[in-house]
Each structure stands twice: as C-alpha cells, then as structure tokens.
C-alpha cells in the first residue's frame, strides 16, 4: 500500500497492515491536516519498502502524551506524509488520508475524543479515549 502527498512527488510504500490505526481529534491534528481529525496509521518500520520524493521535517512536542514527533512533509506541496514518535521508536506513523486509493482498513480507536467536533459520529465498536 502506498501513501502519496497531494502533489504526487512524495510517497511511502509499506508491505503490511497497520499495527495501530486510529483517529485523533486534538487541536494540532486539526491544524496539521486542515480537517476535523487526523488519521494515524502506525506500522513497524521494517514494513517500509520504498520512499520516493524529498521531504522536509519539523519537530513537534506533544505535551499531553509527553513525546516528540519528527514530522516529514513533502518539500513541494507541504502535505504531512509520515512521522516518528519518540515513545515508539520501532514504529512509523503515516498519514492515513494519504492512502486515499490504497484501501487502508477501518481504524479501531479514537483519541483526544473530548475534542471531537460535535457533528462527527464514529462507529460504536471503536475504542474511545478521552485524552
Ligand atoms: Zn507533494
Ligand atoms: Zn492529535
């Protein structure tokens, strides 16, 4: 499955399904995506089989979960494509929406749910974490 940025110059391909896959409603995910929530698909780093295009990075400190994220975005269009989280160094997070054509399976949990927009409804069988 391949995740691709908005302009198509940067992509990352994995050969496995996500080991953790959820949505986050925090303020920063809204800003990062320009959308109502972020979709975070985490894979073992060993699942990455190809990376194309140039990315730039910035570091974001997640205060509530007390970890640092190194975020990689396409240097041409700015789409956040993937990131690394200091608390789970063996995994890579990939922006779930960037798998638009790849048939990523349904997420299984919702985090920072207390900041979920009032008009967003989620499947009842998902795990829900207020923070
Ligand atoms: Zn791009
Ligand atoms: Zn978030």
Task: Offer a quick outline of the entry.
This protein is mainly beta and 131 residues long. It has one helix at 27-33; strands at residues 2-4, 11-14, 20-24, 38-44, 48-52, 55-62, 67-74, 80-85, 91-95, 109-111, 127-128. The chain has a single domain, classed as Metal Binding Protein, Guanine Nucleotide Exchange Factor, Chain A, CATH 2.170.150.70.
Structural overview:
The chain is mostly beta strands and 131 residues long. The chain has a single domain, classed as Metal Binding Protein, Guanine Nucleotide Exchange Factor, Chain A, CATH 2.170.150. Helices cover 5% and strands 43% of the residues. The chain has one helix and eleven strands. A hairpin with a 5-residue loop joins strand 8 and strand 9. The chain is globular, with a radius of gyration of 14 Å. Bound molecules: zinc ion (2 copies).
Write the layout of secondary structure elements.
Blueprint: E1 2-4, E2 11-14, E3 20-24, H1 27-33, E4 38-44, E5 48-52, E6 55-62, E7 67-74, E8 80-85, E9 91-95, E10 109-111, E11 127-128
This protein binds zinc ion (2 copies).
Characteristics:
131 residues; mainly beta; Metal Binding Protein, Guanine Nucleotide Exchange Factor, Chain A; eight-stranded mixed β-sheet; three-stranded antiparallel β-sheet; binds zinc ion
């Amino acid at each position: 499955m391949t995740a691709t940025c908005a302009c198509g110059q940067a992509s990352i391909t994995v050969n496995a399904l996500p080991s953790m896959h959820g949505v986050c409603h925090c303020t920063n995910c809204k800003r990062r995506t320009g959308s109502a929530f972020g979709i975070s698909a985490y894979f073992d780093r060993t699942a990455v089989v190809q990376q194309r295009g140039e990315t730039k990075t910035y570091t974001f400190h997640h205060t509530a979960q007390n970890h640092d994220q190194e975020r990689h975005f396409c240097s041409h269009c700015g789409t956040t494509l993937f990131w690394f989280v200091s608390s789970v160094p063996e995994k890579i997070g990939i922006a779930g929406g960037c798998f638009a054509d790849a048939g990523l399976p349904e997420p299984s949990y919702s985090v920072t749910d207390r900041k979920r927009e009032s008009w967003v409804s989620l499947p009842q069988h998902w795990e829900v974490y207020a923070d």
